[in-house]
Model the fold of this input.
Amino acid sequence: MHSICSQATAVPRSNFAFDSHAPALPISKPINLRFCGLRKEAFGFSGLTHSCSSRVRFTSRGHSKRISASAENNGTPPKSFDYDLIIIGAGVGGHGAALHAVEKGLKTAIIEGDVVGGTCVNRGCVPSKALLAVSGKMRELQSEHHMKALGLQVSAAGYDRQGVADHANNLASKIRSNLTNSMKALGVDILTGFGTVVGPQKVKYGKVGFPDNIVTAKDIIIATGSVPFVPKGIEVDGKTVITSDHALKLESVPDWIAIVGSGYIGLEFSDVYTALGSEVTFIEALDQLMPGFDPEIGKLAQRVLINPRKIDYHTGVFATKITPAKDGKPVTIELIDAKTKEPKDTLEVDAALIATGRAPFTNGLGLENINVETQRGFVPVDERMQVIDANGNLVPHLYCIGDANGKMMLAHAASAQGISVVEQVTGRDHVLNHLSIPAACFTHPEISMVGLTEPQAREKAEKEGFEVSVAKTSFKANTKALAENEGEGLAKLIYRPDNGEILGVHIFGLHAADLIHEASNAIALGTRIQDIKFAVHAHPTLSEVLDELFKSAKVKATTSSHVPVSEPVAV
Amino acid sequence: MAHILQTSFLPSTSTLRRSPISASKARSHSLRVKAKIREIFMPALSSTMTEGKIVSWMKSEGDKLSKGESVVVVESDKADMDVESFHEGFLAAIMVEEGGVAPVGSAIALLAETEDEIAEAKAKSQSSSGISSAQVVEQKPKQKEESEQAVPAVAPTVSSTKTVALGSAVHPASEGGKRIVASPYAKKLAKELKVDLGTVVGTGPLGRIVAKDVEAAAAAAASVVAAALPASPAIAAPVAYGIELGTVVPFTTMQGAVSRNMVESLSVPTFRVGYTITTNALDALYKKIKSKGVTMTALLAKATALALVQHPVVNSCCRDGNSFTYNSSINIAVAVAIDGGLITPVLQDADKVDIYTLSRKWKELVDKARAKQLQPHEYNTGTFTLSNLGMFGVDRFDAILPPGTGAIMAVGASQPAVVASKDGRIGMKNQMQVNVTADHRVIYGADLASFLQTLAKIIEDPKDLTL
Done:
């Protein structure tokens, strides 16, 4: 599942001056333990042996009997606990943490006020992948030139909007029930209601109109996720001015839709809408489109994903006011210059999609009860995801993972953080290396990345005094890509020529999202280029793009140090 | 990347001065000596590259370039790469247009050091054309460009008259026409087809300019060009279908679509009801208003639409096998044979639109159909289909119901017939046979019978048609 759930929850990299916390790649952060937090999960099958014992199991930390907590001892930690671990929020992050906790023998409960699966499964990466699968096929069928080159004849491809929408909805339901079943099968208690922290190691939950239940746990993980961020001045009506939540239901395919923000979410939706026949106008606050991506990849992506499609764009502008369509009037968008704040233009379109990033969903969590102040909604945490209170002290036994802490707003990052926390509370110190977490944008072709962008790497190199080199390979030279007639694409490796460390890999091309893991695993495990370049790849496969990339890097490490190494070039 | 590119730019030491004569003159001005016009060469982006294709120029002629700035995107045998400028200056002349191919090392553009020299460099690029090796590959795009340029030369006159005629269609939010509201694709197309959006009248939602408006404007301009040419090759003798006997020819896209529809139609339980209609009154009406551009097809469509108003079930269809879909508008599709196939342009809201507008609309649709420029909504939104083979002298035939609709009417020729009337007299009347094929899941025999009765009444007393 992690691999399905890559993005859509991501984004704050993009628009609206909202992104000061953005690329969660703290360059100066010490990179600890080379440990890959991601693991393949089994939906409720493997690990059953653990779960059987976990219900009656007492942890080594010695609370040998369990009494239910009483309400009057608010403020003081209870002496014994209902659970070893309570997770607030059953999204992908909470789910990952819960499964790992069971594996580690913890008695675990998860509190969910909405539906299991959170944003990713219900309103994010999962349904969007269904829509993108459709858009990819439509694109292929509509590309007469492409079909002809393969010797195929296809006549006018069409689609049924409701059928496409149903596919997305069915996929979300299926994944949601898989997720729910996997937790139930392992013996995770799913508690229904909105969770609130009422004191140290104490949480209440309940539905509106019902009495609250109070439960205690030795450790608590906040994993409440995020909601679409809508800048002020924008009126969302859910019909003509929409967020990704509405767009994923695909209730309409407008003739002309403006997409505010050109990050992952905006880009993916532009792929869907243009494949289904809409025309798209991007509105981006920064000076160029796709600001979160490596500049070179961004440039190429613009050439392939934007320029030849029915898309135009306004950059360096804020949408200050967006009014939904009504009384026969179109959606109006007022634009001002991002720098001078002068009014610049007014657009009239059929619909507007607000894809300006995501805001943490942390209201009502009761953080004031334990003296924690959110920062623009985000829960402050240290590198071990432990919550920091208003005085800068760590709050014992309280952790926050995923979009709610804003470190890296990706579903699989949340899951990895959750696993990392479980490792810590079960006695093994662990710090997740965020630079090893890949990200992907599922356009056609896809974009993927891990680690630093070239400018970030150069900045870090200057600060720390090492050399940076860049190697590139093209999909045009790859047999499999050419067989598919999809030679458009580039893979880029940013590395240290002195020791062969991989600093970042960026891929734009066919199946880039699947190809990135060789690089992300190498970063997570600390594999150096001089070693990985001897690994063998099946021929002919797309993975040879990376093979060639590693081979084209010029690393001094194993050779004698005075051999001059020139700037590597793409060959 | 700059490093590779620099090497390719090194040959630019062979800077062009001007033609020998002007150069000797220039020598007297010390200031001028500094000025240079450099050539930008097709770089070698890989060791195996022998020629490169220009993907796109990122700068236009006259743009200022700073050192290291990307000028052009070149596609080699392996990758697309940005080519950066190694010098500062102005992009004076582009010698190989986008899409053109040039051998490695040949000049693809000229870079002038100062703004004053742009014109000179341009002259240079033109005079040197024909000698340069890049020129051979350059010719193709150039020709294309010339023919494209011929279009806008005439366009303004055509479209400006159009603007006057349809001035009311200005986008309400465009502040009296000051602002142009055009969809992203319309803007792109306008740039490609070199159509001035200011002269295009929008027909999209709220008067927005959409892609088809731009295409129409470009087509209109092109047709004027064609008409202006004496002895236009377009009037070539109509060649009989060049069919090679003994070959198997795969369906075209359109024929494939027809084939699929025909097979699909077999899944619908259809039945047929015929009727003979006297057309003397209709023929008289047609004679009277023919001069106003009214066609028989439009009259028949109008009559059918008016009859459908009274029989909504005949305008319905069955989408899922479980329900009636009552269509909100009456859109009469009329089958038209075109080169290599069949298409059904649609007269939308035929019951509401007056006969003169309907006739004009019909003419426009037929022209578009012949030019294969019909938009999907212009051929797939029909709710009832007419098929008329009367012009061939066919007196009766049977039509296949197009999937997704409820009924189709086959119209035969109107022919004089000897008719016995009820009062025992014998007379001559013009009679036409119609035969309706319908989906019996939603339309029953009695429905069709009463519909045909209404239709006959309308045609036999056609005064309502011109209302």
Summary: Residues 1-73, 559-571 of chain A have pLDDT under 50 and may be disordered. Residues 147 and 153 of chain A are 7 Å apart (CA to CA).
